[in-house]
Specification:
Length: 138
């Protein structure tokens, strides 16, 4: 019986946490696209397993432990929205850091093919079409 998209993402996160930051490659499409906080335009999309490996290597130079903590999971069809936080431990600083996060995973044919991360968790809900964008009044 095929796994639900929520189960695929849950297995991905569980493996990531158990291995302290190593993805479960069989759950990730070889042509995956990883977008780090699209609203910040800090980095271009990372493509494929190679792009993710390069990114994780860079993170590994700064942090010796990474953990994704989940507060809520929203099933939105082929999209799965995860709200929570990223916890990390700095190698050189010996400081634990925590960042609220939202992730939008797109799952197709039982594999994650797009991941978008957001440092403002509500933006993940907006990106998945689950909440209207907020407008500020000046």
């Amino acid at each position: 019986m095929p796994q639900s998209n929520v189960d695929v993402v849950g297995d991905f996160i569980a493996h990531f946490n158990e291995t302290r930051g190593e993805p479960s490659w069989e759950l990730i499409d070889p042509d995956v696209e990883l977008v780090i906080d699209p609203s910040g335009n800090l980095t271009p999309p990372l493509l494929g397993h190679k792009g993710i490996r390069v990114y994780l290597k860079q993170l590994g130079e700064v942090f010796d432990r990474l953990r994704l903590e989940v507060d809520d999971v929203v099933d939105a069809g082929e999209l799965v929205v995860v709200l929570g936080r990223l916890r990390a431990h700095g190698k050189a600083s010996d400081i634990d850091v925590e960042q609220p996060m939202g992730w939008v995973f797109r799952v197709r044919d039982g594999r994650i093919d797009v991941v978008r991360t957001y440092v403002r968790p509500d933006e993940a809900l907006v990106a998945a079409g689950l909440r209207p964008p907020t407008t500020s009044t000046s």
